[in-house]
Structures are given as C-alpha cells and as structure tokens.
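From the pipeline queue, job 12 of 40. The input is one protein chain; the requested action is below.

Action: predict structure.
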Amino acid sequence: MSQQIEDRLTRLEELTFFQEERIEKLDAALMAQQSQLDALEQELASARTVIRALRDKLAEQPENGLPPHFMPERW
C-alpha cells in the first residue's frame, strides 16, 4: 500500500512540474501578445488621428468644386 501511495505522489509531482512549466510558457506568450496589442492600439490611435485630420481638411474644401486644371474663363 505504501508503494502505491509513493507512486501516486511521484506522479502528482511530475504532473505539477509539467503544469507549472506550461503555465510559465503560456504566461510568456500572453505577455508577448499583450505587447503586440499595445503596439497595435498605438498605431490605430495614430491612424485615427491622421484620418480625422484628412477628413477635416477635405471638409474645408468645396464639395463640387472645379478641379484646379479646369479654367472656364479661357474657353
């Protein structure tokens, strides 16, 4: 009976070791993903700023204005 208990204890210790190892790897992967997400959020915020600036600049121009190369007074 004591050999069975010792075998079970050994097996549980092995499982615990490998689970801890997996958890550490998962934690490292999660941290890497979070860094990537943070970088993407910053890039997205920059892109939104540029898009808003472009949209505002386009809004200032006349909607149906003539193109700059078109000069009706010459015709």
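Job complete. The CA atoms of residues 37 and 43 lie 10 Å apart.
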